[in-house]
Every structure is written in C-alpha cells, then in structure tokens.
Write a structure and sequence with these properties.
Blueprint lengths: L1 E10 L9 H18 L4 E6 H14 L6 H13 L3 E6 L7 E3 L2 E3 L12 H19 L10 E4 L8 H9 L4 E2 L7 E3 L3 E3 L10 E4 L2 E5 L6 E2 L4 E4 L7 H10 L21 H10 L2 E4 L7 H15 L5 E9 L5 H16 L4 E3 L3 H7 L4
Parallel strand pairs: 1-2, 1-15, 1-16, 2-3, 3-6, 6-7, 7-12
Antiparallel strand pairs: 4-5, 8-9, 10-11, 10-12, 13-14
Helix pairs in contact: 1-3, 2-4, 4-5, 8-9
The structure holds zinc ion.
The site of zinc ion has 6 residues, from loops.
C-alpha cells in the first residue's frame, strides 16, 4: 500500500468576478509550482476555463491583455510539459459575463452547471474544453482532458452533467467531498458518498453511489467530519482578512431561492458549535501539522487496501500566501521523508492501476 498525494488547485479569480488574474492566479501558482518542484511534487491545475475564455476575448477585442491571458496560457503550457497536470474546472456563470468597472458581472441564472438544461451543459462544456485544448495542444499534441471539477463542487442532479462528461471522454470527476452539503445557490448532498478517499465508479443518476458498469469515476477530495475547532488555523485567519472585501456582496450574489425555511438563530449556533462539519484537506487553508495528522489518519483508516490510493487535497491559488507557503513546507518535508508510504501523483497515475480506461 502507498498513498499518491494529489495537489489539486482551483485556478480562478474571486467568486464575485473581481480581482487581478496576475495576482490571484499566475503569481501564486508560480510560487506553488516552484515549492512543489523542490520536493518532486506535482500540481493538478483545475483551470476555470470560462473566465479564461473571457480574458482572452477581452484581449483580442481591445488589444490590451488586462487579464493576463498570455501569462495564464504560458503557465498552463509550462505545467503540462513539466510533469504537472491541467484539467477542467467550470463556472458557467462566466459564459455570459460582461465587464463592468473592471469586474466580471456574471449571469447568476447559470450558476450551477449540473442544473442547466442538457443542451446548455454540453455547449458550455464544449466551449470550456475548447479553450484549454487550444492553449495546450500546440505544446502537447497528445494532451488529454480526462478530469473535471464542478464549480462550487455541484454534481447533483448527476444525470445530465455525467452524460455530457462521459460523451466528451472526461471519465473522472473530483468534486465530491463526503459529508459536504449545500442547500442554497448550489445544491448537493454528499453525506451518502461511497467513500471519503477511495475512488468509485459513479452512478450516472447519483454521483454518491457505486455503479460497477459506469465509465465515470469519482475521485473524492479527502474529507473528514470534524468539530468546528478542527478548522482553526492561521491560514484561515489570514484568509478572512485577505478576502473579506471580495466575498459575494449582496449586489453580486447569485439569487437565493425563496421558500427555503431557515433554522432559528440558536439552532444554527448550536449546529455550528456542537455539530460536525465537512473538513476538506485544503492545502491552502489548513496548517502543515493539520495536513500531516489527516494523512496519518487516512493511513490508519485505509492503509489495509492494496495498490496506490489517492489522497486528494484541494487548494485555491488565490489563497496561497506566504504564511501558507511556510507551513506547507512542513507537510512536504514529512511526506518526502516517508517515500515508501507517500508519493506525489496526478490523477492519471492511478488510472493504470485501476484500468479505468481499458
Ligand atoms: Zn471554482
């Protein structure tokens, strides 16, 4: 048994369409790549293709590369030719986005890919896949897009999005985190997910469930149900200060659905402090020691399984700060000091083991 540690990075600007791609995507991702490379680590960049497409259009229409399209393309080309991976992430609300006062005003009617009409899902997927192919194929002619992460992790209802992915040959999803639940602008319930760590062939009608005949694999983001106190880290603390001005403000927020009853304030407080919450292995939000402890717990829970097991972590380039860099160093040092148990991987490293595409 060994674990393949996957650093999966959501590569995008702020959710409200604000922020500089150079500062939030390109610059931190170069630092992260350099840091991982010192340890032989590999990065999987889930590039949000719809916003990259808007950045490119803006550049071509105005002649001004205000959104760093060329630097983004250069970075993605570097990654794919240096042992890292670039795969597909989509926020469909950027499909109709317009630039207003330097910020991308999105179409909140198209917030959740899984809930779009089937023909619209296919159109968005084709457009998004096209832009990454155009960037990467000139330097990597056999570039294969095979993995997907849904915007806001929303893969329910599963049927239409699963069918569209399978038809494009994208046979691996990595959006689910066991225990995760949303019931607002995105809606999903991953409490019944098959596993917090082991991949499964996912039922086209319900991503949580195993269907041995399905061509679509789910590689879940490693997650544990923890009390609120497990979430405390300096990285998160810094992040609150960094991003408080970029949260979805009222004007920018997608509309919430009316008629969803909300629990009382006291009940919500009690649930926050005494309930369990889905704690993702987030290498930008958790400290090095927290990640090391999670890796050890994963080993004691799943270590009896044979083969190479994925330990999928998630991060966001926009939250990768200097403090984060220092504490992540401890995790990387730990993992490389136990090379027989842990190695660094991209998703395709597991496929051979599982013969997923046989
Ligand atoms: Zn995203």
């Amino acid at each position: 048994m060994a674990f393949g540690i996957v650093f999966s990075l959501d590569y995008e600007i702020h959710g409200n369409g604000a922020g500089s791609p150079m500062e939030l995507m390109v610059e931190p991702t170069w630092r992260l790549l350099r840091q991982l490379e010192r340890f032989g680590g590999k990065l999987t960049i889930f590039a949000e293709a719809m916003e990259i497409l808007r950045f490119r259009e803006h550049f071509r229409a105005t002649g001004r590369d205000d959104f760093a399209y060329e630097a983004i393309a250069e970075q993605l080309r570097y990654a794919i030719t240096h042992g890292h991976d670039v795969q597909l992430h989509i926020h469909p609300s950027y499909a109709n986005a317009i630039l207003e006062n330097g910020r991308w005003k999105q179409d909140w009617r198209e917030y959740d890919t899984a809930r779009l009409p089937p023909s619209r899902i296919r159109a968005v997927l084709a457009e998004a896949a096209g832009v990454l192919d155009e960037i990467l194929k000139p330097v990597q002619p056999d570039y294969a897009m095979y993995a997907f992460r849904a915007g806001n992790w929303a893969m329910m209802p599963t049927r239409n999005i699963a069918d569209a992915l399978i038809d494009r040959g994208i046979l691996l999803d990595s959006s689910v985190f066991k225990g995760g639940m949303r019931d607002n602008v995105a809606k999903f319930d991953y409490s019944g997910a098959h596993s917090a760590l082991l991949p499964w062939r996912a039922d086209r009608d319900n991503i949580n469930v195993v269907d041995p005949s399905s061509p679509l694999w789910e590689y879940p983001i490693y997650c544990e149900m923890r009390s609120i106190w497990a979430f405390v880290s300096l990285n998160r603390f810094y992040r609150v200060f960094q991003t408080r001005t970029n949260r979805l403000g009222d004007e920018d927020a997608p509309p919430t659905e009316p008629g969803v009853p909300r629990p009382g304030k006291l009940a919500r407080l009690a649930a926050t402090f005494f309930g369990k919450h889905a704690w993702k292995a987030d290498f930008n939000q958790c400290s090095g020691p927290q990640l090391i402890a999670a890796l050890k717990r994963a080993k004691s829970t799943y270590g009896a399984q044979s083969g190479l097991l994925p330990f999928v972590m998630i991060g966001h380039s926009k939250t990768y700060g200097r403090y984060n860099e220092a504490t992540l160093e401890r995790f990387l040092t730990f993992a490389t000091s136990r090379a027989t148990e842990y190695r660094f991987a991209v998703y395709r490293d597991f496929l051979h083991d599982l013969q997923a595409f046989a």
